[in-house]
Amino acid sequence: MNQALLQVPAIALHIGGQRVPSASAAWRDVVNPATQEVLARVPFATAAEVERAVAVAAEAFRGWRQTPLAQRMRIMLRYQQLIRENVGALAALITREHGKTLPDAEGEVMRGLEVVEHACSIATLQLGEIAENAASGVDVYAIQQPLGVGVGITAFNFPVMLPCFMFPVAIASGNTFVLKPSEQAPSATMLLVELAYEAGLPPGVLNVVHGGADAVDILCQHPDVKAVSFIGSTRVGTHVYRRASEAGKRAQAMMGAKNHCVVLPDAHREQAINNLVGAAFGAAGQRCMANSVAILVGAARDWLPDIVARARALKVGPGSDRGADLGPMVSRAAKERTEQLIQAGVDGGASLLLDGRGCRVDGYAEGNFVGPTIFADVTAEMLVYREEIFGPVLCVVAAATLEQAIAFINANPNGNGTAIFTASGWAARKFQNEVDVGQVGINVALPVPVAYFSFTGSRASKLGDLGPNGRQALQFWTQTKTVTARWFAPDALGGKPNTTMALQ
């Protein structure tokens, strides 16, 4: 083996509460997107290693499901404190491997922490229901029981928040878990898992395997896996949902998006522009909730020069620079794809008002940098509109009326998130009622709900009835068992058989 490779840390699997070196022959470099430095090597787990992770989780479930709610709650309370103490370390790992700025990475950790804090309420969240004397001497009650082994498959863009959307509620409610994080940015996820065990999690409750399509297929089809949660691209999410569903698993897939931000001329001008620009270009546009389309209604079209000027003033730099507004894209392939789509926008007839191609950052000649890019005169037929670019590209559409803007959004197949900026309560209410999108922001550009509300993307952005977080998360990771019970007195008479359906 190359001597240089021997000096690069090898990311381990995490099985049974321990780091486990992989025997795989297939490895991938984890690269700093600002410098191209190889930070680590991550294995694509063998089939046997994936099978072992599931087997260990299945065995651990037998004891973990019997662990009292109060004890699970105490572990989660300790876990949230450990995450809070390690915000800086987690954020630094995110920035090194993903590229987003440190303040943005710290914000991601805090949003993940919200979910863990919500899971600390498991003792009350997992309460059942009871109807005493539903019939003569008969009680009916429902209990929420864990499913068994859950699986989470996450994308690269939120290495802490997306796993937190999955395993904290799953394990707090009594399940065990196998997590397959993105191989592009695994280190923050691994620290998150280490902290869970430091908090007191029993061995085998939370396990990690790395890999690609082969590992995903094993997890989706394994007979001991009961539920699969996915967050990532539409292509992979559709595959995961189909494989898991066909194998009889409960499944959810949060997928691609094309999010729109409507700006009415009565909006607070400075706030609307600042929020629109921040939501479009933060994290270099690598967010499923990024507002990548601005619909300027009526006289708000006159604000376009100010939007361009505000975007041009954003600072591009390495994520470690706290003064930077956006960092590099996660990989050279992501940068190349984004630049190709920018060219497709030009070729398709959109007006390129700000071109982020060829972006250079002093001292970081090898970085995957793309600067803020803005197209005007965009139509629904253009490739630059139809594709989820997942880069720092904003498409601007003009609309004469709010009704026209709503119709434009509803014609798009995706329904992840949308926003409106207005000073009119009537317009905001009309928008929230008529727009066919699962998550709506009113004067909020990134409408990701707090953790005790569910993530509710819709239409082509989501497969499955239930989303992460909030009440829906507990419903997804548990099954309802309804019990109808009658207890007879020791001296009760037998009577005769009753052949009717009615409870007596």
Q: Describe it for me?
A:
Belongs to the aldehyde dehydrogenase family. With 504 residues, the chain is an alpha/beta fold. The protein is built from 18 helices and 22 strands. It is globular and about 85 Å long. The mean pLDDT is 96.
Number of strands: 22
**End-to-end distance, in Å?**
77 Å
| Lateral arrangement of strands in the main beta sheet | 14-15-16-13-12-18-19
Helix content: 25-40%
From the alpha-carbon coordinates, what is the Rg to the nearest angstrom?
A: 25 Å
Overall pLDDT metric:
96
- Global geometry: globular
Structural class: alpha/beta
Major pleated sheet: 7 strands, mixed
> So what's the oligomer here?
single chain
Q: Which percent range describes the beta-strand content?
A: 15-25%
Low-confidence stretches: none
Number of H/I helices: 18
Keywords: NAD, Oxidoreductase
Pfam family, one: Aldedh
Domain Aldehyde dehydrogenase: 28-483
EC number: 1.2.1.27
